[in-house]
């Protein structure tokens, strides 16, 4: 389903009603809902009529529940924006505990409930940590079974820990720049 159709239906508007309110022809609205990219004047007018930003109507970025930073509510109610400084804080809360698997999951979960932020992007942050916590011991055990020596095992531990640090920091940078996660899953453990 197209972004325009989702937004139009969430505001309980028909294509004809949107056409009358915006001055954009019904045929143009049908084309946009069929996948054509709105541009210029049409994009501006539809965004103003629906009281949303122009970016929300553009199909250039893939729409996933993680990337949606604004929650639409029907009947033109006030929209609530996600506080990305708190999202970044929850993401970085795993950093001090990369040496202690499970705690690197528990701390963000506690913060999610304390800060009352059960947004899909927060669940993705925690899901990435859960997946890392599952994969890290498996990789470590495979390294031990290969019997390549103590130096290899020590190097493997360092690489495993550094990989999690990299994921956390890279996601924090992406939250700052683009208000989304760099490393995310197509599913959620929560």
Task: Summarize it.
The protein is an all-alpha fold and 190 residues long. It is built from eight helices and two strands.
Explain how this protein is built.
This protein has 190 residues and is mostly helical. The protein has 2 domains: 3-60, 434 Repressor (Amino-terminal Domain) (Orthogonal Bundle); 84-178, no CATH class. The chain has helices at residues 3-10, 15-22, 26-33, 40-50, 84-92, 103-114, 120-145, 150-178, and strands at 70-71, 80-81. A hairpin with an 8-residue loop joins strand 1 (70-71) and strand 2 (80-81). Helix 5 (84-92) packs antiparallel against helix 8 (150-178), helix 6 (103-114) runs antiparallel to helix 7 (120-145) and helix 7 (120-145) runs antiparallel to helix 8 (150-178). It is elongated, with a radius of gyration of 22 Å. Residues 61-80 have low confidence and may be disordered.
Give structural attributes.
single chain; 190 residues; mainly alpha; 434 Repressor (Amino-terminal Domain); 2 domains; 8 helices; 2% strand
């Amino acid at each position: 389903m197209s972004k325009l159709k989702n937004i139009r239906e969430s505001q309980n508007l028909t294509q004809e009603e949107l056409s009358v309110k915006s001055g954009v022809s019904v045929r143009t609205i049908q084309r946009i809902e069929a996948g054509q990219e709105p541009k210029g004047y049409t994009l501006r007018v539809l965004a103003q009529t629906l009281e949303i930003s122009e970016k929300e109507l553009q199909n250039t970025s893939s729409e996933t529940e993680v990337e949606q930073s604004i929650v639409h509510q029907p009947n033109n109610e006030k929209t609530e924006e996600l506080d990305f400084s708190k999202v970044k804080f929850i993401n970085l809360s795993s950093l001090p505990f990369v040496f202690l698997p499970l705690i690197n999951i528990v701390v963000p979960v506690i913060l999610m409930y304390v800060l009352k932020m059960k947004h899909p992007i927060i669940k993705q942050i925690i899901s990435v940590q859960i997946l890392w916590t599952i994969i890290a011991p498996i990789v470590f055990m495979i390294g031990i079974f290969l019997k390549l020596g103590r130096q290899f095992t020590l190097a493997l531990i360092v690489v495993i820990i550094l990989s999690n640090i990299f994921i956390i920091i890279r996601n924090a940078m992406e939250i700052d720049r683009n208000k989304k996660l760099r490393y995310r899953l197509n599913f959620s453990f929560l």
